[in-house]
Amino acid sequence: MSLLSVRNLVIDYPRTRALDGADLTLQPGESLGLVGESGSGKSTLGSAVGRLLPTTARRTDGEVLVAGEPVFELPAARLRHLRRKHLGFVFQDPIASLDPTMRVGAQLRLVLGRGGDVGFHLARVRLDDPRVPRAYPHQLSGGMAQRVAIAMAMATSPELLVADEPTAALDSQVREEVSNVVFSLAAEAGTGILWLSHDLPAVARRCDRVAVMYGGRVVESGPAREVLGDLAHPYTAALAGSAPAAAAHGVRLRPVPGRPPVLDGPSAGCAFAPRCPFAEERCEHERPVPVRVREQDVLCHRAGELELRVSQGDAVPEGAVSEGGVVPQDGAVSEVKA
Hints:
It comes from Nonomuraea maheshkhaliensis. This is ABC transporter ATP-binding protein. The structure is a single chain. The two termini are 39 Å apart. The chain is built from 11 helices and 12 strands. It has an 8-stranded mixed β-sheet with strand order 6-7-8-3-9-10-12-11, sandwiched between helices. The protein has 2 domains: 4-198, P-loop containing nucleotide triphosphate hydrolases (Rossmann fold); 225-311, no CATH class. Helix 6 runs parallel beside helix 7. It is an alpha/beta fold.
């Protein structure tokens, strides 16, 4: 049984459709990187996993199953149990995710319950300074606050950790250290990770699988080395070509042309069609269904036809993507930094 199963999920906000039939699966102990531009639906999907959406959000179709439990159908008590025992969350802004009125140690004790060893759990995230439990969140650096949030999220060894851009607000050195803490604790506990990120090389380096979102749908998914190495969807290729951290030295970056869509209802066809150099007439009015390309599931009418051309970087202007995409053909992951 899948640890996480998202099926045809549709989430609407007033005058905006955030998810337009999203599908996603994650197996126990697996790490899945969810990537895409801002506005693609990543954060909405991550919040939907724990039914943490704002009150203005409305689910109009689809379902989310966590460990077989239908998240949107659970009564309040059962939902609290699911969140407490099976789910952990780490958000982008660590200070905002902690209670500013409570000391760090008191917040961690609320998670652990009576008898919990606060010092042990802080030491697991490399915070063994005795002053930390007595500090308020605003007295910590961003990296320290994020480690506290990770300690709280992992204290109960959840089956699934949802991490929404947890290192985006940190500098590069601290970002790497915090990522190491998350993935090492998850491996130790057998926790599955849903990692929402813009950092394609980091996702390629750390995650087992990758799902690429666009227009509220997962347009490509599969093993990380396949999705980010042998690109099969034009949007994945364009996204890789615009990522500074994935670019070879001397290569001029080209942004994805046009703007992401703002949907107010179901997309009539492929949402990427207005920006896609390979779009044809049917892309405008016929929604693509998943097509199997190598080990990837791809939402593209021309996926099979374009497989070779996309994997060679032809989905974006010449020079924007080197052959092999984010993960070079020799199997080595790019270490080029922004």
